Hints:
This protein is mainly α and 102 residues long. The chain has 4 helices and no strands.
Amino acid sequence: xxxxxxxxxxxxxxxxxxxxxxxxxxxxxxxxxxxxxxxxxxxxxxxxxxxxxxxxxxxxxxxxxxxxxxxxxxxxxxxxxxxxxxxxxxxxxxxxxxxxxx
Length: 102
């Protein structure tokens, strides 16, 4: 008995999907503008999320320096301590703004 050949994919599912809609060219200038605006918003959201991650990383590094003892200059420890307190709140504020806008 010979093995059964693999079944062919149902391409109708792909043609009806949202992904396919994004791949086909827009029919009108208005549709193109709308798609470009959606892409710009998605990119902007990625950038803001990246900023949130960087602020969290900076807060963690600032906390390490603030708690680093005499190895770090007093002024640097004080500034790092303030940053360790402020940066997480700033990141949360940004997150709240983004969640309200979407």
